[in-house]
Design a protein that fits this description.
alpha/beta, Hypothetical Protein Ychn, Chain: A, 5-stranded parallel sheet, globular
Length: 121
């Protein structure tokens, strides 16, 4: 997958654990496969931008969410949606190291980039 861009938007959090874990698993697998991965945290997944939140997530037969997030942070980009952050009163100083806040324009630019594939969970 070198030279390929994978943009993943995860809207689900602890209320939909399988959908949430699938998004993080696909993102981490993309990084491991050599893809340029951008994982967007929106909706209830926004909470995973905060330190300690991914550590509390559990789903049977799934790798720990914190390990998947760490893998994406090590080899890709993780972004928290601007509006989602504002609705939850999350500021840049609140975020786990390596996560940025950006808005719809940035998301659209990433999705429309040449060789980009987008997935929404």
């Amino acid at each position: 997958m070198p030279g390929r861009r994978l943009v993943i938007k995860v809207t689900a959090g602890a209320e939909a654990p399988e959908r949430c874990a699938q998004a993080f698993t696909v993102a981490a697998t993309g990084v491991a496969s050599g893809a340029e991965v951008s994982l967007w945290l929106t909706g209830e997944a926004s909470w995973f931008a905060l330190p300690g939140r991914a550590e509390t997530f559990e789903l049977a037969h799934s790798p720990p969410l914190v390990d998947l997030l760490d893998a994406v942070l090590a080899g890709g980009q993780v972004t928290l949606c601007t509006q989602c952050a504002a609705r939850r009163e999350i500021g840049a100083d609140d975020l786990r190291a390596g996560i940025r806040i950006a808005g719809a324009q940035t998301f659209v630019e990433e999705v429309l980039a040449e060789d980009a594939q987008a997935l929404v969970y």
